[in-house]
Amino acid sequence: MSRLTLEKIAALAGVSRSTVSRVINDQVNVRPEVRERVQQVIDETGYQPNQAARSLASKRSTILGLVIPRNVQSVFADPYFPRLIQGISLVCNENDYVLSLFLFHTEDEENKIYPRVLNQGFVDGVIITSMVSGDTLLDQLKDSDMPFVAIGRTADMPDVSYVDVDNVGGATTAVTHLMNLGYKHIATIAGPADVRAAIDRLQGYTTALAARGLQIDPDLIVRGDFSEASGYAAMQQLLSHSPDAVFAASDAMAQGALRALREAQIGVPDTIAIVGFDDLALAALEKPALTTVRQPIQRVGKLAAENLLDMLQNGVDPPRRLLLPTELVIRDSCGKKG
Amino acid sequence: MSRLTLEKIAALAGVSRSTVSRVINDQVNVRPEVRERVQQVIDETGYQPNQAARSLASKRSTILGLVIPRNVQSVFADPYFPRLIQGISLVCNENDYVLSLFLFHTEDEENKIYPRVLNQGFVDGVIITSMVSGDTLLDQLKDSDMPFVAIGRTADMPDVSYVDVDNVGGATTAVTHLMNLGYKHIATIAGPADVRAAIDRLQGYTTALAARGLQIDPDLIVRGDFSEASGYAAMQQLLSHSPDAVFAASDAMAQGALRALREAQIGVPDTIAIVGFDDLALAALEKPALTTVRQPIQRVGKLAAENLLDMLQNGVDPPRRLLLPTELVIRDSCGKKG
DNA sequence: GTGAAAGCGCTAACAG
DNA sequence: CTGTTAGCGCTTTCAC
Prior knowledge:
Two copies of one chain form a homodimer. The first copy, chain A, has 14 helices and twelve strands. By secondary structure, chain A is of the alpha/beta class. Chain A has a six-stranded parallel sheet, sandwiched between helices. In chain A, strands 7-6-8-9-10-12 form a six-stranded mixed sheet, with helices on both faces. In chain A, strand 8 (245-248), helix 12 and strand 9 (273-278) form a beta-alpha-beta unit. The radius of gyration of chain A is 25 Å and the shape is elongated.
């Protein structure tokens, strides 16, 4: 029964409301013995301050919002999100913040709910997963005075804080590795043209080839939508151009590619080598085990939350921009030519 | 700038604060023309009521909590959770509620944060994912006066509201289907003995066999932990008892079983048929495509949220207990014996 | 170092 | 139908 209030605790401890408040908020200017006495009453009674009253008086909600726009919603079922959320949640727990989830399924929902999120004082700050450029929600956020951190940068975002993984670098490393193994005819299954991560991974591919003075063959670039099915289709399309290696911009697409090759009875990595991106759990279990680029998703979540909290304390300037390194995990599907 | 308050809107519209409040809360007793005038001011100014003040005065936070205990946390990365969350979130959005996530990673976190969740008035109600029996958090919830709905029932839970899928029925159907196809020597890869869903699926297995007067052979029951790796190991163990079909209590374990059989060069479904449980995305992509029991996860989430909201409005009694039907999805791995 | 007092912005009786 | 009046339970100056 949280019929308990500050007032009552104060009475029980024989002090004023203010003093109890100071104890609760770990403020200075309380004599140690008084502090202890008050704390004891709090412990004994199991008193918990009322959150609404606190927020009203202090103008802080101690809630962080995680916003997932509807264009991202479709991939919410990916293993990516749970790990991201775990990272964010860890930091929230540590800092006595609560994480609220704003999943939007339709444009109506966005229009209806988003203004509330931004203006009601519901959340102190927002982490937004942004993928495609020109994201409406991201733009609204920029126009508001709500502190926020973007997960994944989209188009140009001057003075926007974000955390992203080094997709360009990861892709470059992967393709370079293939070249080092001796592959000459390296194709890529890219992601959607409007998704920044896909653009970056494709750029990593071209960068790596260009660094060796290799020509970019448009026939060796096929787009998918990150899904298994699209990887399967893309691989079939690539087959007529007989690549000796394929860099897929997601593990799911790599998985689809493997399926297509299996059906076509083409040996991996003997005839065609495959490298993926993500390092999902399934990667290690594939046959052959998938060489892939691992991205530190949980760390992305942690850092986003940490930086947001830092902004809440110390102001949003200067913008925090973080690009986390990826790691090439070498397994069997890339072969060992050499 | 949400410097706007009820008071100011009232002034602008030439009415009292109460009237504006009534308009905002869709209450009766406001003349249509007045209502319209007020609404217009609200729309023009983009006024959003302050959430903290509202909660403080009304004693409702319009926040639903989703609690994921640490013993469940380990499987949070499963595709299961995003779908569950999507279901809950849909209902929250529809009803102007916000979903807050309480992910616990350690016991310390549970001890520190949980009391706050329950007593601070932070949330109006809680949805808790419970798996193992004797879950501490669930017990605390029962002892509190916080309205809640459990996802998945554990041990005996008289007068606890829950939403669960019919694991017994699903397993029974799956195994019966195998028997109908003519398999005689059906094994199962069961889940952990303390997880209710696993217990139920195992019971479904035995029930189905018993219904045909078949003996339960202990050698044909091997336990895993729902993971791919455990399914792989379990299948290897089963091999010495040469079953002609295997019912795996999760798709991941079925996947592991398939891997073991592939390695052992045993044909599926020709030599051994396999049926899984879950219908994850990977199920349809397996080679051969996995016959499995589909569970309506998103619906579980929706119903849990809907029932919780109903409890908030109409009181927690009587307890709502829902068992959702599953569906056998027949693909290739179960074969088509006659 | 401590207490008194003034709100934070809203809802909810209660009059009228 | 509308306005007035009390708070909700806390934080935060400001005196002392």
